[in-house]
User: Fold this.
Amino acid sequence: MPLGPGVTVLTAHGTGLMALGKPAGVLSHPNSPGASANALLVCPYDLNGECYRFSAADGSPRQVWLLNRLDSPTSGVVLVCTDGELAAHIKALFARREVEKVYHAVVKGARLIPDRGVWRDALVKSGGGEGRFVRASSGAGGAPAESVYRWERANRSIPGLSLVRLEPKTGRTHQLRIQSALHGHPILGDKTYGDFPLNRAVAAREARFDRLFLHCSRTAFDYEWAGARHVFLAECALPESFSSVLADADSPAHAVSDRLNIRLRPRR
Assistant:
């Protein structure tokens, strides 16, 4: 496959299902012909068929179906498939929320209290533009958004950042970015919902810190195909920039105890 800039193959199944590692800044698919040079695959993309088209070395036509997408600023696991029927089957698993998706993010704040939990919000699309962005709904009618979060470690020196594990249970537009901001921990480098002074301060340290610190680190699910049961797991290591910005982070072994968390929680 004509892989895009920095794109890697993470894992591949004999059924035709593959996981690719997408760097930040690369498009899941081009929105126009001129953007294909900075896309997951450097070849034409069929928006209606949701597949890439290219020619093999022997000149025969090939198609690769895109199964899920990540925003351009987000890095990590993206799934593709060389079999159209299997692609439709896996897309149905995504639609039924039968796919485990795990993200990691660097967020503002040296602590999340409690260390783990579930964010539940009602989100609604904003007016104007393409209506892509969503915000919290103050009334009835908002779409439910649910994400499981877990604090992992922190860097307290610049001036307090945490690495968190995020698992979305619903699939709203920009859900993790919005919910992180709503709950007081905007994702570092987020140019729409983030803490802009903090973004500038960190980006000034080094050019590679000027990115959205959101990364899809794991995708997993079971599926049946051709009379056999398959287990699919793809993992993508955190980018080096995550490790660098958290270089002096506390280890998980030094996490604040549950007893201390109780004392730190505000009284109601």
In short: The chain has two domains: 1-96, 98-219+233-268.
